[in-house]
Amino acid sequence: MDFRLTEDQRALRKGVRELLARRFDRGALRAALDSPSLDRELWRELGAAGFFALRLPEGEGGVGLGLPEAVLVFEEAGRALLPGPLVSTHLAAGTVPGAADGSVVVTSADEGLVPWLDEADVVLGDVTGAVPVRSVDPLTPLHRVPGAAGAVGAGSPGTTGAGVLLLAAEQVGSAQASTDAAVSYARTRSQFGQVIGGFQAVKHLCAGMLVRTELARAAVWAASVTGDPVEVAGAKLLADEAAVGNARDCLQVHGGTGFTWEADVHLHLKRAWVRAELRMPAARAEETVAAGL
Amino acid sequence: MDLSCTEEEEAYRARLREWLAATLPDLPERPDPLDWPARRAYDCGWQRRLYDAGYAATHWEASPTQRLVFLEETELAGAPYVGANFVGLLHAGPTIAAEGTAAQRERWLPPILRGDEVWCQGFSEPDAGSDLASLRTRAVRDGDAYVVTGQKIWTSHAEVADWCELLVRTDPDAPSKHRGITWLALPMDAPGVTVRPLRTLAGSTEFAEVFLDEVRVPVANRVGEENDGWRVTMVTLSFERGTAFVGEVVACRRLLGELARTARKNGTWDDPVLRRRLGRLSAEFQALWRIVQANVSEARATGGVPGAGGSVFKLHYSHARQELYDAAAAVLGPDALDLGRDWNLDRLSSLSYTIAAGTSQIQRDIVAERILGLPKGR
Questions:
Q1: 0.90 cut: is pTM over it?
Q2: List of chain A residues whose C-beta atoms are within 8 Å of the C-beta of residue B275
Q3: Which domains does chain A possess?
Q4: Residues B349-367: pLDDT tens digits?
Q5: Closest CB to B375 among A197, A216, A226
Q6: How far, in Å, CA of A177 to CA of A5, rounded?
Q7: Which of A46, A258, B254, B343 could cross-link to A51 by cystine, CB 3.0-4.6 Å?
């Protein structure tokens, strides 16, 4: 047993982080806010980098890696707040032509919601009667699917363990980003003649953020290795809680600044709320874990 | 991210399982929790069996993975935990092993391993709790002895201990309070030592106050250099925050299973709020188990003592375990008020978990300062 990352896994994570820092930095994130259509060129670049074909066998033009590696890659996507139906397209690689290389955008109906419906080339699941809603997340356009259509497991691959886990991995990345942002702000913002990170009231919030992230990350990593459905459900539950809870605390640490559109804090919170509703929301995750007792 | 066991680890597990299956049925009845001499005899008897079977030093010498397997399997089998040997095996012993001279190791370690001698811990004082380094128990050198005067508190197992790992102030004028502290092995039968048991809110006397009135402790009983006791102690404390709770995570996961069975029987399982609450707790303990595995992997790779990762674990574990007993009370309903029922005394005991071995607030300071790099300060 050695739960640490292998050297290859560390290198993969570093590579993805560098790619996203170069290709989707803060400027790109803020620009995407102003023109919320999907950047197809970036999508193809992600495809070329193996983002979607990561788990396809090399014989089928894939990278031939496993779920643990995919989890690391999606953590980075969550950290950078990369927009788009990343998980659906990744899961469709190998079955929907063009998904693997990023020339096609695939979305799916899941939990009565469809992200990125108007931008997608291929839609999986029944979206009959889908109506657009004013999405809480400015970087995730949403449609609502009425009635039974688009509900749990309605023909979409979203309910597979891998889909749940990859979304959970994005949540972990977001939780990490919120911790980093809060700590960085707490180290520089001064009040009462000292940086606020020196006050226990603030540093204890930050410590709590780290604990939530570590708990969720251990759960997600382990579930990616075991593939156990109960562990996957538990991982999603804890990852949702880490992403949402950390974004809330990050907002609090930022004070008034955290309440502005200009700060990125709200983008993490809103995306975390969206991810929490998709692919196994809390109630079903808790029931799934309970059923395993 | 490898969670599989090597052949060697599996062989170790199989041998241990076989030994536990053969040994546990022969154990005497568990003693009355209020009868300390009987508890000491029981715990030391168990340690002796471990010693005879070659498992006594598992906490110190085995690889971190073996230690994990040992704690997992003994707990799964319902074997006794370290009990009165807690300080000897998990605090004083590892400290002496790491910092003691050859003669000191020879004198003190074998009796701990054999279950012949019991240790207690004299660290906290009435005015030195979380701020342990401000301790004031005074030791003045007089020839080949230190003359020690002061008071210790929260000393577990003091009533039945043979030895006490004692922190004393040897240099009150040191430039910082962390300097000027020395680690001594105090024989509990020395003249001038008075033990007064303290009753906990659970009704039992788990710990005591220890009064020291001009107690002579040989200089030969000092582990480490004079005034270097703080560093010596930190080795011990990080041990405590590392794998010390492994067995308890296993126990909590077992308890969750029992809770679910009870809830299904008494109908509370039909309440979705309670059911989901148990599901959430189960997810948390599953993740805590994975954090233990991560910490053990890290400890093995860095060759040593677990670091601040232990604080991350303890913070969440202590909180989750309290929530677990609250959930147990919800399953029991009115029976939660009957101390004769399972779990209810444990619920009371669990109230100490967010305080003992470093309060949650101190743990958050450690996480914020040592991992996140935030400034020191209160």
A1: yes
A2: 286-287, 290
A3: 7-144 (1.10.540.10), 160-291 (1.20.140.10)
A4: 999 999 988 899 999 999 9
A5: A197
A6: 20
A7: A46
